[in-house]
Amino acid sequence: MSATLREVIGETQHKFRLDADSARVCFRTRSELTQGLRVDTNIRQHALVMDEPQAIGGGDSGPAPVEVLLAALAACQEITYKAYAAAMGIALERVVVELEGDIDLRGFFGVDDSVRPGLSAIRGRVELTSSAPRAALDTLKAAVDSHCPVLDMLRNPVPVSLTLASP
Amino acid sequence: MSATLREVIGETQHKFRLDADSARVCFRTRSELTQGLRVDTNIRQHALVMDEPQAIGGGDSGPAPVEVLLAALAACQEITYKAYAAAMGIALERVVVELEGDIDLRGFFGVDDSVRPGLSAIRGRVELTSSAPRAALDTLKAAVDSHCPVLDMLRNPVPVSLTLASP
């Protein structure tokens, strides 16, 4: 797999160097509140269900959006580790990521507007199983953390514009 | 549902005013790269699979992390609309959110380090079905956008610390 992945990455980089427009992609999602606080989302052919725990009025039929954001960060880290390890020729047998995020729900519930509604901090433990020396893994971590899309979007603001439409 | 939801919100706000500590929650996820670029994540009792499209070396067995982040924003918006409409006594029959996000993959692939790895912009269309006047829906939107946890985390930086661990 890694040899193939390395080739795919090399070919993709080559293509993007020759034609920057081919690197510009637009992702889309469509979702609808279906029952209580349950949300059904379509992402291409994939379906995703989110909900809230019963303690805050949901039916717990799926993870909550903030939990899903944490999961997206973990997955993005792992995929970026795999890709950069392949590209840099660093052996990597296994990647496990455990994340935790602190939230003060007084922000979401509008109890105290000095409290941000989102997570105030995220801490993570990245466990790599590899025969490579620690220095190589530290170099890999630096490359991953500067190229991981979801990490970038949490550390640096993303311009978001939202418009109300009539049905 | 909305009457009940309104009660749950009112009771929760009352509890948080009396005891701020009860509002502080820690979310956790654990995930592992299992096959190629596929990631399996556990969030409490919920499972979530992410992967990459075949064009960039994945098996497409689930949505990509950046797509999942968009979906989390959409779901968070919808749940926040439902909750604030209930709390504010605004009729709301249906909420549909369509999002699109622009990414230049030269960032992730390390082809041009002046290009950010994450989305450069997110645009969204929020469709509300409601008998309420437009002015009430605009007021609702303002309340939602200032209390939506995932929107907050995209617009404002989140401190993230990640540590490498040996297995």
Descriptive report:
The structure is a homodimer of 167-residue chains. With 167 residues, chain A is α+β, with helices and mostly antiparallel strands. Chain A folds into two domains: 1-62, no CATH class; 64-156, GMP Synthetase, Chain A, domain 3 (2-Layer Sandwich). Chain A contains four helices and six strands; from the N terminus they run αβββαββααβ. Chain A has helices at residues 2-18, 65-88, 134-145, 149-155; strands spanning 24-35, 38-43, 46-50, 94-104, 121-129, 160-165. In chain A, the strands form two sheets. In chain A, strands 1-2-3 form a three-stranded antiparallel β-sheet, with no helix packed on it. In chain A, β2 (38-43) and β3 (46-50) form a beta hairpin. In chain A, α1 packs across α2 (65-88) and α2 packs across α3 (134-145). The first copy, chain A, is globular and about 50 Å long. The termini of chain A are far apart. The model of chain A has no long low-confidence stretch (mean pLDDT 95). At the A-B interface, α1, β1, β2, β3 and α2 of A face α1, β1, β2, β3 and α2 of B. β4 (94-104) of chain A pairs antiparallel with β1 (24-35) of chain B.
In short:
The structure is a homodimer of 167-residue chains. The first copy, chain A, is of the alpha+beta class and 167 residues long.
Question: Would you give the CATH topology of the largest domain in chain A?
Answer: GMP Synthetase, Chain A, domain 3
CATH structural class of the largest domain in chain A: Alpha Beta
By secondary-structure content and strand pairing, the structural class of chain A works out as: alpha+beta
Residue ranges of chain A: pLDDT <50 for 5 or more in a row?
none
Number of strands of chain A: 6
